[in-house]
Amino acid sequence: MNYQIRRLAPTDAAALHRLRTSPGVVRNTLQQPFQSLASVQQLLDNFPPHIHALVACTPDGELVACGGLHLAISARRRHSALLFLMVRDDWQGKGAGSSLLRALLDYADNWLDLKRIELDAVHDNHGAIALYQRYGFAHEGVARGFNLREGVYEDAVLMARLRFRPGEHAANLAEHTAQPGAVARRDGSRQPFSLRHSEPADAAGVAALMAHDSTQANTLQLPYPNEAFWRQRLSAGNLGLVALDAAGGIIGNAGIWQPGDNPRLGHIAELGITVHPAQHGQGVGSALLRALLQQAGDYLPYRRLQLKVFSDNAPAIALYEKYGFAREATLRGDSLRHGGYHDSLLMARALK
């Protein structure tokens, strides 16, 4: 069948509501079984500009599938997008998904110049996984206990399709493995430090911490950090800690936050830690990580704590493994660094 492919429109609310609440779609995606038509209409009336959504319709105009590209917001990941695809239960196996996927990939390649398209699929959704493999998506790992479905935390298969030009995928190149700006303490002594909750007034100190070359090389921060941005972020109400030296200067920053507002992912939190390069190897990162794990495990409802780390950041990887994080996936060409696209590891540990 020749399907008509067009952009999702506000007038599609009723058809999209029927699609999103189909039992098979609910089971194999992150949709909720009971959604109001009004909530779907509100979504379409205020559709986010960083999501490009298309639909597949039959020759008589019936909407039977919807898919899209959720563009990464982080400046150093703007080459990537998260793909989603839903086909109504009664139209499974009739080519609608393939037609829509081809259109989305053409849109990504020829109009958005995306270099990495990633997705997650429930581990037992074998038909979808086979479809993605036919169109060049490769298995990168498995996120354990990722998707709450029918009362069970199910694993998700992580897949991605790459389209890098020669020389762009610069993962693990020797010239980028050094951590610029790091200052090793040669006398073996450890200087005293303390931890406390971060406050908006810490914005200047955290921004100064983020200004180091090694910080930018090992995180997704940009050069020339903005104090106002950090004041806003530290006011967001997330669990955040800072490490202070004896003089009260900020030498470390760490936090836990939820990656989104989908209730089926409400058990997941993400973690990030930054330590001043002069304090590497002094126990600051370990202290911040222990404190976050204790508070998250004892007082917060999260079950899965996850993070991403550049695959060549051996000291950080060793620290996370020491505290129970396991490597789940290698995300190829995940982030821009030094003009090349580098691999990251997805790591996670259970909290409950």
Structure description:
There is one protein chain. The protein is an alpha+beta fold. The chain folds into 2 domains: 4-162, Aminopeptidase; 192-350, 3-Layer(aba) Sandwich (Aminopeptidase). The chain is 27% helix and 33% strand. A 7-stranded mixed β-sheet has the order 1-2-3-4-5-7-6, sandwiched between helices. It has a 7-stranded mixed β-sheet with strand order 8-9-10-11-12-14-13. Helix 1 crosses helix 3.
Key terms:
elongated; transferase; 27% helix; Aminopeptidase; seven-stranded mixed β-sheet; alpha+beta; single chain; 352 residues; Acyl_CoA_acyltransferase
Compact summary:
This protein is of the alpha+beta class and 352 residues long. It has helices spanning 13-20, 23-28, 37-45, 96-110, 126-134, 203-210, 213-218, 227-234, 284-299, 314-322; strands at 4-7, 51-57, 63-71, 80-87, 116-122, 138-149, 152-162, 193-197, 239-245, 250-257, 268-275, 304-310, 326-337, 340-350.
| Count of DSSP strands | 14
Instruction: Give the end-to-end Cα distance, rounded to a whole number of Å.
Output: 48 Å
H/E element sequence: EHHHEEEHEHEEEHHHEEEHEHEE
| Rg value | 22 Å
User: Could you tell me the strand content as a percent range?
Assistant: 25-35%
Domain unit count: 2
At CATH level 2, the architecture of the largest domain is 3-Layer(aba) Sandwich
Structural class by secondary-structure content: alpha+beta
Average pLDDT level? 94
Q: Which word captures the global form?
A: elongated
The largest sheet has its strands arranged as: 1-2-3-4-5-7-6
- Largest beta-sheet details: 7 strands, mixed
Q: Which fold name corresponds to the CATH topology of the largest domain?
A: Aminopeptidase
CATH superfamily of the largest domain: Gcn5-related N-acetyltransferase (GNAT)
Number of helices: 10
What proportion of the residues is helical, as a percent range? 25-40%
The parts where pLDDT drops under 50 for at least 5 residues are: 172-186
CATH level 1 name of the largest domain: Alpha Beta
EC number: 2.3.1.-
Protein name: GNAT family N-acetyltransferase
InterPro entries: Acyl_CoA_acyltransferase, Bact_Acetyltransf, GNAT_dom
GO molecular function: acyltransferase activity
